[in-house]
């Protein structure tokens, strides 16, 4: 079965309709988590059955590692319930034998009574055991989910940052998160169901073998067409799901655009309502047609299945009749065999469905396992010398090339930074400033060259203790959906409230954020997420002040500030740069396009195409001429009158 991805549908060649055609959304590509779908659709049931022992072993391993007690309980009680099935059937034969015996009815009923009580007790015991087994099984699911999710996030937060630039890694992570992670509990669930189904069939077979072994082939005769029909129905359902998945994703995407706080303003300002509703209607129409087709084809499959089952039952009845007539089987045994067939039928259905589902889910679960293995290779090993801080940071021929790119973003850069300095990185967009700053901050490891803290290669230092001396105000900060207080404290969440370093308020004041925070409805306790009750949002500039407060609260020896004032008003920017001044204990690395802010820096490094092209202080660089002078004068000209601007540009 192939999922067909069609190009955008062109309605007509003339100009009026080609506009409409351009508006038709292209079909979406198969999502990553669908990549096993074709493999599943094309695998035969027997191929699946062959892999079963390994899959079952794996699932039991997952369950065992999560809770031995619940694993033993759910499997053990299911087996005990199967034993009760055998007892029940044997007791039923006894009841029927007594009832079909010669003699007056009251005597026959009296004789059947003990066996009847036994049969009733077996049914009750089976019911109780099944419920208890279901309880243990249901207890396993959340425990497994919790364990698997935690493992996933332990790994995703430990891998090095560069892993996220690798498209292959990102795709594997999405696959593992989308489905792989969820399937761990499913494979355990399906395995227990499979065991339950198989135990049910075996228990029935055992009862039949005790009653009359010659009836066993009858059980088989009824079971085979049942099994084939169950597989076909399950497969058809799955293929139908595949065929509809692209459309359903599109509908989900459209629904999300029409009922979403983040898109609401644009949907209104571009008056997209009719366009979106039209697309949604179009999708709904074809979805409805697909639903009707599905119902029709399912009915056809069921008719075929029911006919096959009917024929099988007919054949079984014929065989049973023959055995009765020839005296091979007693009437009571034949009647019990019919009951046994019903029980076996249900158990078989459960086992077949569980096998199909187990196979499918196990493929996705493997994605999760593969991702964990891959992530382990990308996790920086703990250990190494503890980093005690630095007096100098030295970059020696440092380069970094992002994955799948031809040119290095930072190319053989050598420089020395000293504690107590304010250093600026300047240059045009894409020149490599942020990448260099991330290398200095230890967020990336160089692809070649060495970074040394007081002469020690940072690769030999313990990554955790190295990171504890660094704070980074990133350019692309995230709006963490926490309270204001938490948003600042996560800068150094493990510092006790009255521990060393600036207090929460001091950090907020230094970032010109304190007054703004006090004006919020709940002050420092205001939750910064509109999607929760009493949540609040901030303007871009207010957020940036908060991010600055967080970095200052971190109070690290190395403070890297990437465009710390891009969204700030003039007053807040002035206040912030007053704070980002020389401090004997701190090295500040500053990236900004507003060159007025770097005039007082001790050293300014000018970058172009990943390389350092100039360095010096402001006066030296202005005297040198070149890129820095050109950029500075261009910016300065915006603040001058026309006449002085011309003079500045020509100076
Ligand atoms: N994660 C990434 N993966 C691949 N290439 C990247 C990545 N980040 C940046 N680049 C590329 O590396 C080069 C340097 O980017 P960088 O962000 O360091 O420049 P920048 O000088 O900080 O730019 P800007 O002034 O616009 O912030 C650019 O060509 C950019 O496209």
Structural description of this entry:
By secondary structure, the chain is of the alpha/beta class. The chain has three domains: 31-212 and 330-376, no CATH class; 392-469 and 556-650, P-loop containing nucleotide triphosphate hydrolases (Rossmann fold, 3-Layer(aba) Sandwich), CATH 3.40.50; 481-554, P-loop containing nucleotide triphosphate hydrolases (Rossmann fold, 3-Layer(aba) Sandwich). It is built from 20 helices and ten strands. It has helices at residues 15-23, 37-42, 45-66, 68-100, 105-156, 167-211, 216-258, 261-269, 273-325, 331-377, 433-440, 463-467, 484-489, 504-510, 514-518, 540-554, 570-579, 618-624, 627-637, 642-650; strands at 392-400, 410-418, 422-427, 448-453, 456-457, 470-473, 558-562, 587-591, 603-608, 611-616. The strands form two sheets. It has a six-stranded mixed beta sheet with strand order 6-7-8-3-9-10, sandwiched between helices. It has a four-stranded antiparallel beta sheet with strand order 2-1-4-5. A hairpin with a 2-residue loop joins strand 4 (448-453) and strand 5. Helix 3 (45-66) packs across helix 10 and helix 7 (216-258) runs antiparallel to helix 9 (273-325). The chain is elongated, with a radius of gyration of 36 Å. Adenosine-5'-triphosphate is lined by residues 165, 402, 405, 409, 427, 429-435. InterPro entries: AAA+_ATPase (IPR003593), ABC1_TM_dom (IPR011527), ABC1_TM_sf (IPR036640), ABC_transporter-like_ATP-bd (IPR003439), P-loop_NTPase (IPR027417), Type_1_exporter (IPR039421). Residues 72-360 form the ABC transmembrane type-1 domain. Keywords: ATP-binding, Membrane, Nucleotide-binding, Transmembrane, Transmembrane helix. It holds the Pfam family ABC_tran. It is found in: Cell membrane.
């Amino acid at each position: 079965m192939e999922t067909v991805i069609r190009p955008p549908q062109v309605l007509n060649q003339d100009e009026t309709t080609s506009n409409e055609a351009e508006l038709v959304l292209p079909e979406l590509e198969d999502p990553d988590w669908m990549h096993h779908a074709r493999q599943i659709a094309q695998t035969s049931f027997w191929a699946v059955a062959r892999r079963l022992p390994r899959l079952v072993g794996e699932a039991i391993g997952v369950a065992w590692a999560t809770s031995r007690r619940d694993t033993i309980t759910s499997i053990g009680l299911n087996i005990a319930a199967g034993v009760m099935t055998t007892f029940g059937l044997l007791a039923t034969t006894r009841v029927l034998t007594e009832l079909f015996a010669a003699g007056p009815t009251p005597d026959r009923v009296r004789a059947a009574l003990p066996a009847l009580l036994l049969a009733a007790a077996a049914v009750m015991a089976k019911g109780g055991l099944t419920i208890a087994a279901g309880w243990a099984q249901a207890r396993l699911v959340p425990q497994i989910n919790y364990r698997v999710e935690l493992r996933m996030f332990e790994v995703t937060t430990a891998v090095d940052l560069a892993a996220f630039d690798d498209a292959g890694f990102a795709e594997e992570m999405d696959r593992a998160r989308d489905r792989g992670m969820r399937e761990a509990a499913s494979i355990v669930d399906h395995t227990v169901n499979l065991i339950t189904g198989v135990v049910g069939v075996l228990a029935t077979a055992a009862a039949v073998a005790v009653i009359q072994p010659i009836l066993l082939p009858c059980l088989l005769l009824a079971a085979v067409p049942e099994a084939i029909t169950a597989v076909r129905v399950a497969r058809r359902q799955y293929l139908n799901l595949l065929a509809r998945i692209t459309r359903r994703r599109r509908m989900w995407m459209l629904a999300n655009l029409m009922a979403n706080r983040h898109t609401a303003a644009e949907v209104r300002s571009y008056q997209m309502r009719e366009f979106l509703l039209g697309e949604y209607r179009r999708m709904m129409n074809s979805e409805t047609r697909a639903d009707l087709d599905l119902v029709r084809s399912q009915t056809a499959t069921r008719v075929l299945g029911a006919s096959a089952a009917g024929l099988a039952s007919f054949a079984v009845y014929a065989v049973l009749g023959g055995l009765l007539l020839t005296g091979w089987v007693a009437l009571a045994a034949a009647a019990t065999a019919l009951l046994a067939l019903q029980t076996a039928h249900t158990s078989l259905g459960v086992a077949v469905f569980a096998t199909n589902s187990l196979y499918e889910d196990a493929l996705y679960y493997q994605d999760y396992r593969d991702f964990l293995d891959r992530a382990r290779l990308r996790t920086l090993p703990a250990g190494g010398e503890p980093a005690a801080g630095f007096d100098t940071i030295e970059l020696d021929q440092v380069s970094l090339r992002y994955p799948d790119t031809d040119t290095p973003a930072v190319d053989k850069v050598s420089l020395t930074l000293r504690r107590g300095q304010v250093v600026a990185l300047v240059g045009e967009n894409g020149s490599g400033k942020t990448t260099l700053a991330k290398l200095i901050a230890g967020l990336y490891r160089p692809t070649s060259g060495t970074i040394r803290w007081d002469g020690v290669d940072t690769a030999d230092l313990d990554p955790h203790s190295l990171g504890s001396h660094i704070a980074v105000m990133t350019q692309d900060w995230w709006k963490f959906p926490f309270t204001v207080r938490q948003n600042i404290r996560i800068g150094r969440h493990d510092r006790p409230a009255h521990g060393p370093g600036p207090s929460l308020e001091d950090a907020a004041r230094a970032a010109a954020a304190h007054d703004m925070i006090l004006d919020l409805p709940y002050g420092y306790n205001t939750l910064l997420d509109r999607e929760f009750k009493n949540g609040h949002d901030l303007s871009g500039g207010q957020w940036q002040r908060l991010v600055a407060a967080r970095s200052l609260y971190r109070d690290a020896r190395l403070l890297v500030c990437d465009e710390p004032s891009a969204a700030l008003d003039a007053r807040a920017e002035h206040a912030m740069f007053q704070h980002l001044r020389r401090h004997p204990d701190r090295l500040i690395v500053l990236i900004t396009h507003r060159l007025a802010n770097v005039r007082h820096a001790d050293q300014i490094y000018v970058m172009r195409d990943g390389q350092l092209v100039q360095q010096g202080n402001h006066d030296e660089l202005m005297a040198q001429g070149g890129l820095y002078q050109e950029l500075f004068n261009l910016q300065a000209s915006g603040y001058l009158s026309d006449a002085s601007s011309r003079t500045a540009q020509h100076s």
